[in-house]
Amino acid sequence: MKNREQFSGNLSVIMAMAGSAIGLGNIWRFPYIVGEYGGAAFIIVYFAACLFIALPIFYAETIIGRRGGLDTYGSMKRLAPGTHWYKLGLLTIISPMLILSYYSVVGGWSIHYLFKSVSGTVGQETGQFSEFISSVEAPILAHTVFVILVAAIILGGVKKGIEKFSKITMPILFFLILVIVVYSLTLPGAGGGVDYLVRPDFSKLTGGAIASAVGQAFFSLSLGVGTVLTYASYMRKQDNILVSGLGTAGFDFLFALLAGFAVMPAVFAAGLSPSSGPGLVFETLPYIFGKMGAGSVWLTACVAGVFFLAVLMAALSSAISILEVGVAYLVEEKGLGRSRATLYLSLFAWAVGLLCSLSFGPLADFKILGSSIFEFLDKLCSNWMMPLGGLLFTLFVGWKMPSADVLDEFSNGGSKPWNVKIYPFVRVLLRYVAPIGIIFIFLNSVL
Ligand code: TRP
Question: How many C-beta atoms surround the C-beta of residue 131 within 10 A?
């Protein structure tokens, strides 16, 4: 077999994995669902969901990926020869491609808004957002550019593409979001937003809110579709799985919080509602920037530009991790060259994304089970395919793999004392807590 590329070390692994984790889920989805479910109380539940449900599944994928040392399908085949488990590998080739399709549409929106920001035409009025997403050419053009950028980074390979891009963008991303947090906190009336984020109101915590917190943790840590598994297969044997998981989940949670503190204080300062849904970041926020920079077109352009540049970088470093799952599969199992694999899969994602984009406009009346194409794919992946993949990964590591093998991989052959100490706890989470948490998501989607 060909020599596989590897990430250069622990730090690179964390940067790449954090790049995958930190994305539209943090900066676009997190603030608006926090707004819908009432603020601080939701954040507390979300934290618990990350620690006790998402992180164990993250470890399950990491253990399979590094021990298998191949793409999802190949790794499963290697670890459970002669069984049906490899089919899980196939499921996880399909789900990421579907996710990439609609993810790229939203990624495209961030490109469009970045251009609007720097050209000084952002946020003069509300209503622009729905007009934009329901139009034909502009969102499709932006989606196309986004897919091309993703493909270009993936063509660079594991080290020169994924690792390099993530190492450059992650620090910049944190810096940019901090700039917005500071700006947002200094707006008159920002205190209401801070209160909202730190003072819990537990009366809003319904079962639906809890299931959403678990689902959000899943999406945010890129679980259940082989993304983490594929990246882990590029980890060196001496790198520390415990540390990479804690680092990734820690940065991911921190970034979601920062995004909350970038958005909510501004929303409250402008006297708007925190629960304005998916339009919160693309519509409400530019409007606020426009209003607050009152008179200074230049200031508005800068702040909005910084913000949407952050959204774009976050989206790109996540999208590459989704594409890499399929590329690794085609290269390793089907013997395709990296360029050809990238070309085919990005064309696929582009074409399906086209339909998703049009489903906000001309195709709005075309419904699958009552949802538009975009909504349908999002629900299918977020509520079903990702949890299903995650469930099977934890069951595999918790119940099927010999415990000694799991411990061996988790602790690098017993050479990491902390990992050995923590393992019994991780094992309980893997076998019982995480599967039950996932079943909770299913029940919520069914009821
Ligand atoms: N976690 C990313 C975000 O928060 C998106 C993402 C990357 C993802 N890879 C994934 C989501 C795999 C689901 C599955 O935006």
Answer: 11
Contact 222, 293 (CB under 8 A): no
Q: How far, in Å, is the centroid of ligand 1 from the Cα of 318?
A: 6
Tell me, yes or no, whether 1 lies in a domain. no
Is 224 part of any domain?
yes
Atom of ligand 1 nearest to the CA of 315: 15
Which one-letter amino acid corresponds to residue 334?
A: K
Residue ranges lining ligand 1, Cβ < 6 Å: 20-21, 23-26, 99, 219-220, 222, 225, 227, 318, 321-322, 386
At CB < 8 A and 24+ separation, what contacts does 408-414 make? 409/63, 409/66, 409/67, 409/241, 410/59, 410/63, 410/241, 410/242, 412/237, 412/238, 412/240, 412/241
pLDDT digits (tens, 9 = 90+) for 309-358: 999 999 999 999 999 999 999 999 999 999 999 999 999 999 999 999 99
Q: Ligand 1 centroid vs 124 CA: distance in angstroms? A: 32
CA distances from 168 to 21, 117, 209, 317 (A): 15, 23, 35, 10
Give the SS3 label for residue 233.
coil
Tell me the pLDDT tens digit for each residue of 192-242: 999 999 999 888 888 889 989 999 999 999 999 999 999 999 999 999 999
Residue the block writes with tokens 């989470």: 429
Q: How far is the CA of 11 from the centre of ligand 1 (A)?
A: 20
- Is 80 exceeded by the pLDDT of residue 125? no
* Average pLDDT, rounded, for the chain: 94
Q: CA dist 133 to 104, 126, 139, 272, 313, Å?
A: 13, 13, 6, 22, 20
Q: Is 293 a domain residue? A: yes
Tell me the residue range of the domain where 352 lies.
10-446
Residue 2 reports pLDDT greater than 70? no
DSSP state of 419: H
Question: CATH code at 280?
Answer: 1.10.4160.10
Is residue 2, in this structure, part of any structural domain at all? Answer: no
Show the DSSP H helices in 334-368 as ranges: 338-358
- How many independent structural domains does the chain possess? 1
Predicted TM-score of the model (pTM): 0.95
